[in-house]
Amino acid sequence: MTENHSEGLVTCVEEDRISNLPKHLIESILEGLPVPDVVKTSILSKKWRYRWTKMRALVFDKQFFRKYAKYGAFGGNGFTRIINKVLILHKGPISKFLLHIPPKYEFDDSFEEVDQWMMLLSRNGVRELILTDSNQRYELPSYVFSCLELTKLKLRNCFFKPPLKIEGFLNLNDLELWNIDFRANLCGTQINLPQLKKLSMSWCTNVYNFNINATKLQALIVIRCPDAMLLRLLQSPYLTLICVSFQKPIEDNVQVEKTTLPIMLSNLRKIVVLYLDGFFFKALIAEKIPKWLPHPVNSIKRLFFVDVKLDDLDQLHGALCLLRNSPKLESLSVMSFNMNPQAIYYDVEPASNHLESPNCLDCRLHRLQTVKIECLEGSKPELLFIKLLLAHSPSLQKFTITTSRALNAKKIIDICKDVMRFPRASRKAEVIYSS
Questions:
Q1: Alpha helices in 193-329 (DSSP H)
Q2: How far apart are CA 139 and CA 112, in angstroms?
Q3: Nearest in space to 214 (alpha carbons), one of 197, 231, 189
């Protein structure tokens, strides 16, 4: 309200705050809304009308399709019709495009429309492309490989078939691949990814055909891809995170590269987080490894062992080697998911005898602060391993133990009593139990 003294009148000044929002703020609001809601913003103000047609991010995710399928909006060619209308009305570049292709019962069209969308994106300077397919594998057209401005590429359930002459993605820094089939016609063609920082591959096939040059790689995640060319991928001197989980015996794969724990660690001078599962770990220690490596891995701060069998003397030696040669380790997690119904059961005596021998660890874990043991079954090697950690960790603050659901109450109580008797190098160490 403002007062006009000259006329003695009180007038009301109405400010259209929505219309006068800064352009960058309007764009930020639109990008955070689902596509249907973005279109509805046209009624808010004249200045907002058709503003959505210049959006740089178009997201057609699972929530989008679930919402429309619920009201039967997709029948026939509804899937392609809606996206085509949005793309026809759209003006300007598209920096982000997320497309989830729903299951067959919602989408019966061919992939011709999707190919056309990929062609359109290749001409609009797309920087972030996320494509997930719930149907049969979608074969990426050549247009995708001409999107040289891409910085992030996420693909799920596709055939990876680049043209024979490909320069690579020169600006790509984040690549995530799930259930991708790398066709054999790659013929060893090297794909240059000079800016790639993060590579994640899960449940992919024919990965040995995927020959990439990524010298700036910082994070490498490989899940259920035992034929990946790890030696080549581990050459990057900038790697800080490595997660390798084969989830099946490595002997089943003839294409896998052979390496050892000392060789792998010799190139990892900046590694901070190391995540290894039992199957890959077993391959790394196939040859006898020394107690002490030529050079300690001073960069490792977080270590994860998944399904590493402590009752297997070889795997125990490998685990102790990593602990012994990681002087700056701050966090340790040992997890067992019991995913393999045909798991091998080892004679526990050799591992138990080694854990009870003098100078088993030969050092103190001065930086270790947190330890987490999950799915503890209460075997003698497991309890002796816990005892070893408590006795050699003067900076320990929290030790969390989660017992296996298969254990009865009496067994859990017995485990608690045993652990309570173990001497602790740290007066601040807190032991937490859960089941």
A1: 230-233, 261-266, 278-284, 313-324
A2: 11
A3: 197
CB 355 within 8 A of CB 315: no
Identify the CA nearest to 34 among candidates 5, 3, 66, 4: 66
Supply 122's token pair: 């290749």
Residue 98: φ, ψ to 5° = -115, 125
d(CA 96, CA 151): 10
Q: Which helix (H) or strand (E) holds 158?
A: strand 152-160
Which position has the token pair 């340790």?
Answer: 332
Structure tokens at 58: 């178009």
Confidence of residue 340 (pLDDT cuts 50, 70, 90): very low
| Residue 3, pLDDT score | 47
Written as six digits, the tokens of 303 are 């270590």
Report residue 258's pLDDT band, with 50, 70 and 90 as the boundaries. Answer: confident
* Residues 309, 354: Cα–Cα separation, whole Å: 14
The rounded Cα 200 to chain-centroid distance in angstroms is 6
Q: Which of 262, 197, 174, 191 is nearest to 229 (CA)?
A: 191
* pLDDT tens figures, 155-206: 999 998 888 777 779 999 999 999 999 876 665 678 889 999 999 999 998 8
Task: Take residue 82 and report the two structure tokens written for it.
Answer: 């809606």
Q: Of 69, 72, 63, which is closest to residue 34 (Cα–Cα)?
A: 63
Cα separation, 304 vs 380, whole angstroms = 21
Mean pLDDT of 267-278: 91
With beta carbons less than 8 A apart as the criterion, state whether 345 and 373 touch. no
Q: Which of helix, strand or coil describes residue 106?
A: coil
Task: For residue 174, list its beta bridge partners.
Answer: 152, 198
Structure confidence by residue, pLDDT tens digits, 34-85 = 555 655 554 445 555 556 666 788 888 888 777 766 665 555 467 777 788 8
Identify the weakest region by mean pLDDT among 26-40, 60-74, 231-245.
Answer: 26-40
Q: Report residue 50 as tokens.
A: 């058709």
Element (H, E) at 331: strand 331-335
Q: Are 175 and 199 in contact (CB under 8 A)?
A: yes
From residue 185, alpha-carbon distances to 89, 166, 324 in Å are 38, 13, 45
Q: Give me the chain's average pLDDT, please.
A: 82
